[in-house]
Amino acid sequence: MSSYYFVIIGTRDNPIYELEFSSFRSGVSGIQVPGKSQFSPSVKEILPFISHSALDIIEDAQWSTNSFNLGKIDSFYGLMINAFISQGNIKYVLCYDANGSGTNGSSSPSLNKNDENSIKQFFTEANELYVKCLLNPFYSVNNAITSPDFDHRMKLLARKYL
Amino acid sequence: MSKTTRYSGDEMWKNNVEKIQNSELFTLTYGSVVSQLCRDFNNNYQEVNQQLDRMGYNIGMRLIEEFLAKTGAQRCQTFKETAEMISKVGFKIFLNIQPTVTNWTQDGKTFSLVLNENPLADFVELPMGPDNRICRDLWYSQVLCGVLRGALQMVQLDVDVWFVKDVLRGDDQTELRLRLNKFLKDEVPAGED
């Protein structure tokens, strides 16, 4: 069971949306609520810092590739950080712990690739959702996204891909 | 009669469709107008409604001319016929939607138009404030009320138009209500001098 922390960063390096969840695949332990993240409290409180510190790396990495998906750009004590950047300079950062591979044995390369792919798809669709949200006349760039509908759709995406 | 009018409404939309290449442009333009009004009037939504209504009224007064020129429609004999005309031809040629006419009152002077889809409100989601005032006060598509009021006034029908439900507010459907007050005297267009 990996846990995920997803955050959307605006153009002024301000967070505009964040979401914590765990993988919906393979519910191993029966007790816990599906989708509830398993980060320990000490990790939980530094997650925003980790993603914030990844921003510099993202800004460097964006010039070295043509694709919007920057892939895995950083890791921090077993936490992986994937990032995606949009045309409008909105950054999507996903932190996740790698212990999900523990249940599946040591992560084979193919599985890893699979993961990367689903993260990429997750990012792409998250971006589409964001664009839809941006079309709302009452929303302007860099505002926090408070719409419950967006939140709901985001959770569906998380469920679908991660 | 109603069959032929619906047909002509469909036809006209089809012939017209190349002109409106991107309905999103229209939707977003209207959206910006509304949100700008909200900013200009400091989120005084009653005032915003009024402004939208006034804008619609001015649109409607002109739009009826185009409507009559395009359709060559004859004078409706009853208010019921007018209702059909509004839904099946009017909305059809200008917005390509066909609201359902329902909820007639006994005296046949008031009815509802239920908009199954609302091209004005695509993408729109009213922001959830702490007090939710916007959901209580703003009628996002109020311009439609103005358009109907203006257009019908030009054909000597004095009507009141108002929204009773809007999906944007979380209602199950979008519903407009029209009430016929009186037939105006033929010669003097109201609003002139």
List the helices and strands and how they pair.
The complex is a heterodimer of chains A (162) and B (193).
Chain A: E1 3-9, E2 15-22, H1 41-61, E3 69-76, E4 79-85, E5 91-97, H2 100-103, H3 109-134, H4 148-161
Antiparallel strand pairs in A: 1-2, 1-5, 3-4, 4-5
Helix pairs in contact in A: 3-4
Chain B: H1 2-16, H2 23-40, H3 45-71, H4 79-95, E1 100-102, E2 110-115, H5 133-137, H6 142-154, E3 157-165, E4 174-183
Antiparallel strand pairs in B: 1-2, 2-4, 3-4
Helix pairs in contact in B: 1-4, 3-6
Protein name (chain A): Piso0_004789 protein
Organism (chain A): Pichia sorbitophila (strain ATCC MYA-4447 / BCRC 22081 / CBS 7064 / NBRC 10061 / NRRL Y-12695)
InterPro entries (chain A): Longin-like_dom_sf (IPR011012), Sedlin (IPR006722)
Detailed description of the structure:
The complex is a heterodimer of chains A (162) and B (193). Helices cover 40% and strands 23% of the residues of chain A. Chain A has helices at 41-61, 100-103, 109-134, 148-161; strands at 3-9, 15-22, 69-76, 79-85, 91-97. With 162 residues, chain A is α+β, with helices and mostly antiparallel strands. Mean pLDDT of chain A is 83; it is low at 101-108. The relative contact order of chain A is 0.19. In chain A, strands 2-1-5-4-3 form a 5-stranded antiparallel beta sheet, with helices on both faces. A 4-stranded antiparallel beta sheet of chain B has the order 1-2-4-3. Chain B has 193 residues and is of the alpha+beta class. In chain B, helix 1 (2-16) runs parallel beside helix 4 and helix 3 crosses helix 6 (142-154). In chain B, a hairpin with a 7-residue loop joins strand 1 and strand 2. Chain B starts with a helix and ends in a 10-residue tail after the last strand. The mean pLDDT of chain B is 86. At the A-B interface, loops of A face helix 2 of B.
